[in-house]
Amino acid sequence: MKILDWFIIKKFLSTYFFAIALIVGIAVVFDASEKIDDFIETEAPLKAILFDYYLNFIPYFANLFSSLFVFIAVIFVTSKLAYSSEIIAMLSSGMSFKRLLYPYFIGALVITAFSFTLGYYIIPESNKARLEFQSMYLKGQNKSGESQVHKQIKPGVYVYMENFNLKRAHGYVFTMETIEDNRIVSSLNANRILWDSTSNTWTIENYVIRHFGGDEHKIESGVRKDTAINLTPDDFTEENELVSSMTHNELDEYIAQQKLRGTSRVTESLLEKNKRIAFPFSTFILTFIGVILSSKKVRGGIGLQIGLGILLSFTYILFMKFSDTFALSGIVSPMVSVWIPNIIYAGIAFLLLPMAPK
């Protein structure tokens, strides 16, 4: 490591974190101006607004646009070096372009570790507090429940409810059917079903249970009964909100549970899990492209290079969203789907490599 390496690393990282602070600050101001009426109407405490919502809003937003900040930082720093003829001096002194990339990749490693830590450990916990605040104080976010609920809770077992109240954890007009070989073998009907958070079990009220086996038809009824059902109130939250607030271990358990149930939520959950690895890794690819694009003087100056970098970074973010459809439609696995943008942009980087100064 030489003084020049430390200079580039310092400039790269300081520009990256300054860009994060600037953009996040602007985002907070715009978000606050949009939601101020909701805060006043719902009488949200100032402490909750600052610490439960915005303090937990910042990590999520910063990580979401990390690729944009990387591009801006790389292009800004490298363009300044190029326009002051410092890159020409480095290469003329015998330094190869490959050697020039070393400090950038060290900086990218720091950013990757930062993004990985946010995605794996900080954002899931902060999302829990942020989403809880939204459900309490923001209009349109406080979903009181679902109606006409149809779910498969494990292979061959289906449940139906006319209405489920999330806040009270009560379901109404509940039916659970077990089907084997295309015929119903048991059916449970209850007027109401209640979640007991202490014992993690359900209580059914005014119930009738029917068992169908050959010529036998057994009926059991009662007023109140505790029963174990492979279902929790969390299963009635929005999928993208639920998985985004899970830690790595919680997400693994959730995926295993959904596989057991045979539900369609497995794909969305696997997408979230693999994104937490693929997205931070993109820092190296975008850094590579940024250095290539900005290491030469071009007509139009630094502004043109920064504009091109912003365009490429936004297309990367959009392509990551678009690639999800490949997994959701069953064309490829979720792991392959989230890595497709990285593979394509890595190919773009190597196609652009001949443009790099020699």
Question: What keyword list fits this structure?
Answer:
10 helices; elongated; 2 domains; alpha+beta; 62% helix; 358 residues; six-stranded antiparallel beta sheet
Characterize the structure shown.
The structure is a single chain. With 358 residues, the protein is an alpha+beta fold. Helix content is 62%, strand content 19%. It has helices at 3-41, 46-64, 66-83, 86-92, 97-137, 239-244, 248-261, 265-294, 301-328, 334-352, and strands spanning 145-154, 157-165, 170-180, 183-196, 201-213, 216-227. It has a 6-stranded antiparallel beta sheet. It is elongated.
In short:
The chain has helices spanning 3-41, 46-64, 66-83, 86-92, 97-137, 239-244, 248-261, 265-294, 301-328, 334-352, and strands spanning 145-154, 157-165, 170-180, 183-196, 201-213, 216-227. The protein is α+β, with helices and mostly antiparallel strands.
List the helices and strands and how they pair.
Layout (H helix, E strand, L loop, with lengths): L2 H39 L4 H19 L1 H18 L2 H7 L4 H41 L7 E10 L2 E9 L4 E11 L2 E14 L4 E13 L2 E12 L11 H6 L3 H14 L3 H30 L6 H28 L5 H19 L6
Antiparallel strand pairs: 1-2, 2-3, 3-4, 4-5, 5-6
